[in-house]
Design a protein that fits this description.
Largest sheet: none
CATH superfamily of the largest domain: RNA polymerase sigma factor, region 2, helix turn helix motif
Strand content: under 5%
Number of helices: 10
Structural class: mainly alpha
CATH class of the largest domain: Mainly Alpha
Helix content: over 70%
Length: 210
Amino acid sequence: MLGSMEGAAARVNYLDGIRRLRELSVNDHERSLAVPADEEFVERGKAGDDSALDVLVKRHHAAVYRVALSILSDEGAAQDVAQDTFIKGFRVIAGFRGEASFRTWILTIAANEARGVIRRIGRRKEMSIDMLGPVHSEAKGPDERAVIASEAARARMMMEQLPEKQRLAIAFRVDEGLSFREVGEMIGSSESAARVNYFHGIRRLRDLME
């Protein structure tokens, strides 16, 4: 009887050991697949690692381009702004303190660069919301759905009639899925003001399209 109990206990210990080994193996595998955060590449870039800066460009170039395009509505000019954004950003990256995410920081530079182009050429271009996508944070209300779900072409035409901060708030929320805090950082306002600009813009668009 004692022998059988000892045998059962041994089997339990053996199986428990196998389970623990499997868990450790899975955890090690997951850690090996973990993607380093932007901050790691920023610190390496500050130390002079150009390959780390290349990674940041690959990760964020598309979003930087979309922000520039949403303001300029000119593909060539948006490409130039995207390039200038990374050149300027990496020139001053030593001053990046991580108070905002690198993504928000570089997109803010892109928006400022695009506005600078508009000031230099003395004209405003039509905003683009062709790449309509899901909003990732707060639930969409009926006003928002009425604008986003239909008549995107008409909405794009009506965007020019909105005040700048309302236009940008809508573009950054819709095209980039930014949070209201990030939108506020992008347009130079508080989170609550960004929220107000966004929903006022959506309501104004609905009224214009009725």
